[in-house]
Amino acid sequence: MSCDAPRPWGIYFQDSATPQMEGLVELHDNILFYLVIILFGVGWLLISIVKNYTMTESPISHKYLSHGTLIELIWTITPALILILIAFPSFKLLYLMDEVSDPAMAILAEGHQWYWSYQYPDFLNNDNEFIEFDSYLVPESDLEDGALRMLEVDNRLIIPELTHVRFIVTGADVIHSLACPALGIKCDAYPGRLNQVSVMINREGVFYGQCSEICGILHSSMPIVIESVSIDKFISWLQEQ
């Protein structure tokens, strides 16, 4: 069972559902490996110095303890090498996430105070107009059994799985931010400006996010719910609009 929503006392990522989120988790784990080594190395040095270089243990300080070419080269070159090892995969992932190549469909997401509007510019409804709708937070009094408080919406954003989708993000009034942790996306929504981010969801599921830019008194009431379905279910959903 996948974890696609926040959990109480959760300290790790939600289960990834896109290649970019898998890359982010892998990068995090790799960097954490270096951090653990640095933590134990620096901790061992501090404990050794405190234990072995007290006035009673070593009343005469060694002259190379504070000045030494070799030790200065070591503590300069070693961090530089570690930063290089971290930088290469970081830049690679950054450029891969920014790449938007030949998407199969596009979705326009517009942030309002305090709800989201979505439009499918590649599809028309029965009235020969673009498919579009607003997505509002479901009040706690109207929640169904099992629904998540402060995260469920009345109209979910439906996306087909295994399909390259481009999000075009903008704001209608103030700055908002479209974010969904399980998909590894976070894109600021500026009024009068279009930002874009691409995503390809590799499994079916319901993924929860929230506006991640403080946008007013009801900022916490702007959840984002993205439901990934099969191609057949997506086509059936389009025909119902």
Structure description:
The strands form two sheets. The protein has a five-stranded mixed sheet, with no helix packed on it. The protein has a five-stranded mixed sheet with strand order 4-10-9-6-7. It has helices at residues 19-52, 69-98, 231-240; strands at 105-112, 115-124, 130-135, 157-160, 164-171, 176-180, 185-189, 195-200, 205-211, 223-229. Helix 1 runs antiparallel to helix 2. The mean pLDDT is 87. The protein is an alpha+beta fold. It folds into two domains: 19-98, Helix Hairpins (Orthogonal Bundle); 105-240, Sandwich (Immunoglobulin-like), CATH 2.60.40.420. It starts with 18 loop residues before the first helix and ends with a helix. Strand 6 and strand 7 (185-189) form a beta hairpin.
Radius of gyration: 25 Å
SSE class: alpha+beta
The total strand number stands at 10
Q: What is the 3D shape?
A: elongated
Quick overview:
The chain is α+β, with helices and mostly antiparallel strands and 241 residues long. Helix content is 31%, strand content 27%. The protein has 3 helices and 10 strands; from the N terminus they run ααββββββββββα.
Jot down its keywords.
2 domains; five-stranded mixed beta sheet; Immunoglobulin-like; 10 strands; 3 helices; Helix Hairpins; 241 residues; alpha+beta
List the helices and strands and how they pair.
Blueprint: H1 19-52, H2 69-98, E1 105-112, E2 115-124, E3 130-135, E4 157-160, E5 164-171, E6 176-180, E7 185-189, E8 195-200, E9 205-211, E10 223-229, H3 231-240
Parallel strand pairs: 1-5, 4-10
Antiparallel strand pairs: 1-2, 2-3, 5-8, 6-7, 6-9, 9-10
Helix pairs in contact: 1-2
